[in-house]
Amino acid sequence: METGILRKMETENSNGEFEIKPLYTLSLGDKKIPMNELIGFKIKLEYQHQIYCIKCGRKTNKSFGQGFCYPCFMNAPEAEECVIRPELCRAHEGIARDMEYAKEQCLIKHYVYLAWSGGLKVGVTRHHQIPTRWIDQGATEAIKICHTQNRFEAGQIEVELKKIFADKTPWQQMLKGLAIGNTNLQNEKIKALNFIQGKNLPFTPETDNLYTIQFPITQYPVKIKSYNLDKEPVIEGVLSGIKGQYLIFEGGTVFNVRNHSGYLITLHS
Length: 269
What we know:
Strand content: 25-35%
Shape: globular
Number of strands: 17
Low-confidence stretches: none
Mean pLDDT: 95
Structural class: alpha+beta
């Protein structure tokens, strides 16, 4: 039994660069819990009816933006609008909530990519977030389209590519393990590059390396019921897999760990 403030699960690739197998770790207090080892066993998550900001640590009645108290949500650089919408980044103009943070997170190499996570989507990520970004989204295949020198430039390309590709993860399809079928990411990458050519967007095309991700899942759910700790403070069942930031229980119950960041919970395993 361990009690602590919930944060998104950390991941580590236990396999090769292009054939990724994630190992999940859940941090509760000072305890690091290897979650892959709990698959096939009964676990229980018990909400202690307390929420703490993952930035400043203060107690809050409500979590904003996946774990922040309201003041931090409004002022912390980790919650700036360009985190969700890269095209709104202004760090390249010298404008940010925290320029030192922006130099490390925005004014660096970014990738624009295509990924299959129950559907084909376009996305943007910092260079040091590969393959973490794809793992967190539950992608089973991914390919880099191009790279840029900062977040704003990548966001501009993403905006253009959203005209021909979706930019959202269909989370239910992702959790059901919808197969990629006849979709070929190398061909879709060619389509993407052809679409943005000649539009005065600065970028450098990437290689055609295909990344695959094999998640630790013994059984995909057919029907899905999503747990919310505010409505159901106790979750209990046999863990049948982990995908993205979701714990998947036998019977189709799923729990989004990241959406409950800051919640004080007790894990019984």
